[in-house]
Amino acid sequence: MSFDFLVELGTEELPPKALKSLSAAFLEGICQRLVALDLSFDASQPLAAPRRLAVIITNLAEKTPEKSQQIWGPPANIAFDGDGNPTKAALAFASKNGVEASALATANDGKVDKLVVNKSVGGEATVELLAGVVEQSLAELPIPKRMRWGASRTEFVRPVHWLVMLYGDEIVPGEVLGLSANRQTYGHRFHYNQPLSLQTPQEYTKLLADPGYVLVDFEARQATIREQVNAAAAAIGGNAVIEDDLLDEVTALVEWPHALTGQFDAEFLAVPAEALISSMSEHQKYFHVVDGDGQLMPYFITIANIDSRDPAAVIAGNERVIRPRLADAAFFFETDKKQPFDSFRERLQTIVFQAQLGSLYQKSERIGKLAAAIADKLGYDVAMAIRAGELCKCDLASEMVLEFDKMQGIAGKYYAAAQGEPTEVAEALAEHYLPKFAGDTLPTTHTGLAVALADRLDTLVGIFGIGQQPTGSKDPFALRRASVAVLRLLIEKQLPLDLSELVAIAGGQYADLPKCEGLLDRVLGYMLERLRSWYEDLGISAEVFLAVAAKQLTTPLDIDQRIYAVAAFTQMEEAEALAAANKRVSNILAKEAVDTTELKAELLTDAAEQALAAALAEVTAEVAPLLAEADYQAALQQMAALRQPVDAFFDQVMVMTDDLAVRNNRLALLSQLRDLFLQVADISLLVPAKS
Question: Is-contact 369 385, C-beta < 8 A?
Answer without folding.
Answer: no
